[in-house]
């Protein structure tokens, strides 16, 4: 299953064979059935049951079990910051062993797993802690992912200079404007596919220049191709706002 909503995503299913990749938002990973190994580009190697990987951190995850949980946290909410605070060991952009790991594992084993309950367990309750102008900018990007909105245009819309906007965006979210725009486009593709669209049409609507542009971007962000993910029988569900 792949659940999508409000700029966030949760995958629960068969372990994926991932190459080295760099995400646009914070990723939380859990080995549902067994530990996994996370590797960074500096030959760091840790075998754990749970970990987070920050945006713009090159890494690879090798699973040693049947299933994995991956949660992707929108930096416009407090979840991304709260979850890092709950990890017990840090190695740069990679953090290891969540303080409620046993509770998260229990939730992944439920007969009908609830993605919101899992994220709530991982991060705790939401609280608005990101600058409202940056939250507004991210909402605009998610609302019109294929509109090719440039940084100067978005900066003007939230009453900031371009340089100040780009600096504040990075400082508040931990990722860059371009990477977040790419994340918004990926979310649109996922939602469109869930609604019955094919990858080529969905990616064009989201602003990707060509199918190969989308394919290369997806692999660089997630470590495998979108076609490979869907070929494994992954079902995409769009969760509505509550």
Overall number of structural domains: 2
Tally of helical segments: 10
For the biggest β-sheet, the strand order reads 10-11-7-4-9-2-1-12
Straight-line N-to-C gap: 20 Å
Number of strands: 12
Strand share of the residues?
Answer: 15-25%
Observed structural traits:
242 residues, alpha+beta, Jelly Rolls, Arc Repressor Mutant, subunit A, 2 domains, 8-stranded mixed sheet, 4-stranded antiparallel sheet, 10 helices, 12 strands, 24% strand, globular
In short:
This protein has 242 residues and is an alpha+beta fold. It is built from 10 helices and 12 strands.
Structural summary, described in words:
- With about 240 residues, the chain is an alpha+beta fold.
- It folds into two domains: about 1-125, Sandwich (Jelly Rolls), CATH 2.60.120; about 130-225, Orthogonal Bundle (Arc Repressor Mutant, subunit A), CATH 1.10.10.60.
- It has helices at about 80-85, 100-110, 115-125, 130-145, 150-155, 160-175, 175-195, 200-205, 210-220, 225-230; strands at about 1-5, 10-15, 20, 25-30, 35-40, 45-50, 50-55, 60-65, 65-75, 85-90, 95-100, 235-240.
- The strands form two sheets. It has an eight-stranded mixed beta sheet with strand order 10-11-7-4-9-2-1-12, sandwiched between helices. A four-stranded antiparallel beta sheet has the order 3-8-5-6.
- β5 and β6 form a beta hairpin.
- α2 (about 100-110) runs antiparallel to α3 and α7 crosses α8.
- The model has no long low-confidence stretch (mean pLDDT about 90).
């Amino acid at each position: 299953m792949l659940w999508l909503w409000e700029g966030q995503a949760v995958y629960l299913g068969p372990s994926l064979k991932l190459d080295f990749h760099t995400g646009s938002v914070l990723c939380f990973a859990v080995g549902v059935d067994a530990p996994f190994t996370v590797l960074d580009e500096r030959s760091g190697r840790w075998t754990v049951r749970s970990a987070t990987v920050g945006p713009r951190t090159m890494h690879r995850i090798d699973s040693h079990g049947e299933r994995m949980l991956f949660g992707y946290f929108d930096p416009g909410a407090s979840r991304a910051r709260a979850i890092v605070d709950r990890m017990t060991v840090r190695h740069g952009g990679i953090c290891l062993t969540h303080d409620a790991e046993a509770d998260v594992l229990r939730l992944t084993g439920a007969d009908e797993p609830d993605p919101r309950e899992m994220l709530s367990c991982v991060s705790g309750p939401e609280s608005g802690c990101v600058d409202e102008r940056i939250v507004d900018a991210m909402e605009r990007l998610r609302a019109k992912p294929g509109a090719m909105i440039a940084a100067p245009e978005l900066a003007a819309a939230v009453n900031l200079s371009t340089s100040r906007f780009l600096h504040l965006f990075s400082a508040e979210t931990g990722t860059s404007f371009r990477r977040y725009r790419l994340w918004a486009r990926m979310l649109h593709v996922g939602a469109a596919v869930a609604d019955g669209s094919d990858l080529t049409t969905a990616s064009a609507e989201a602003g990707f220049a060509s199918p190969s542009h989308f394919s290369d971007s997806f692999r660089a962000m997630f470590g495998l191709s979108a076609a490979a993910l869907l070929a494994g029988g992954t079902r995409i569900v769009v969760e509505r706002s509550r």
